[in-house]
Design goal:
Structural class: alpha+beta
Strand content: 25-35%
Shape: globular
Mean pLDDT: 80
Number of strands: 11
Number of domains: 2
Radius of gyration: 23 Å
Low-confidence stretches: 1-17, 226-253
Oligomer: single chain
Helix content: 25-40%
Length: about 290
């Protein structure tokens, strides 16, 4: 009985400790594909002072340039080697850049910007649903920080909308190890370094003065908008949107085409084994590819 009482007390203490600190958020912009919010840390209802250099005005074209230049790499899979990929797709930049600029202009000295973005990555035959989440803030003066919880991670089947996202409970500023690594050859950006001297895998610091110089000397990325100012959404690709090129009528498939189909069949099986597609999709697409031979 005494042991049960002691355990109950410990649970109560731990629960109270966990609830002492909380992130309080206010939405700035949200749509089906993304959410951008202001967030501040509070302990027992008292705001934790962060001393960010907010509010801050930044040009949409400058931020779009940064987002376009960011790359990342992951270890290769069964059928692929490690390669660099863009962190943000073009349609993500169209949606997020204006919303982030608006949020930075509204934030106060204790608020940073939290964002999540849904995307559709083209993976050979399919359009794979992914998500990217992180924070952005200005600190110290003239230096923009962009830190990620994850980049183009696999989205769960239940995650159908970003309007009310389930943000990660992990502070991206405390992530010291990851198999996803940011990389950028841009002269204005470098990975954040922890007190130990080790670089952060998914946290980049940007010299805004240098960014503005580079952005002004190069063609500005075009940020598309809809009829009423809402960010445009690029069409999403489905299984049927990735046709295999066929030879002209009367010609036998050449070796290159046969090899291409063979590679796609192997990748199709890999997607099935990883649970990324259903058995029905696998069978249908496999039959379609085999028919082309």
């Amino acid at each position: 009985m005494k042991r049960i009482v002691v355990l109950s007390v410990l649970c109560a203490v731990l629960t109270a400790a966990c609830t002492n600190t909380a992130w309080v958020r206010a939405t700035v912009a949200n749509q089906h594909e993304f959410n951008v919010s202001l967030e501040q840390s509070e302990q027992k209802g008292v705001v934790v002072g962060e001393h960010y250099h907010h509010p801050y005005k930044i040009n949409v074209s400058d931020l779009a340039k940064l987002m376009k230049d960011l790359k990342y790499s992951k270890p290769g899979g069964l059928m692929s080697s490690e390669t660099e990929n863009p962190v943000f797709l073009a349609d993500e930049i169209d949606r997020l850049a204006p919303a982030m600029v608006e949020a930075l202009a509204k934030a106060d000295a204790d608020q940073r910007i939290r964002f999540t973005s849904f995307n559709q990555q083209k993976v050979l035959l399919f359009s794979a649903p992914g998500k990217t989440e992180g924070v952005i803030f200005i600190k110290p003066a003239g230096h923009l920080n962009l830190a990620f919880n994850f980049i183009n991670a696999k989205r769960q089947a239940s995650e159908t909308s970003a309007i009310n996202p389930a943000y990660s409970k992990v502070d991206p500023l405390k992530i010291t190890k990851s198999d996803t690594l940011l990389s950028s050859t841009a002269p204005y950006a470098e990975l954040h370094k922890f007190d130990t001297g080790k670089p952060a895998p998914m946290w980049v610091e940007v010299d805004l003065g240098k960014l503005q110089e580079v952005a002004s000397s190069s063609p500005a990325p075009t940020v598309r908008t809809g009829e009423e100012g809402a960010p445009a959404v690029a069409p999403k690709l489905g299984i049927k949107d990735s046709p295999v090129e066929m030879p002209a009528p009367g010609q036998a498939p050449d070796a290159a085409l046969a090899e291409a189909i063979k590679i796609k069949l192997k990748y199709l099986k890999e997607l099935l084994d990883e649970g990324l597609i259903s058995e029905q999709d696998y069978t249908a697409k496999k039959r379609e590819l085999l028919d082309k031979l």
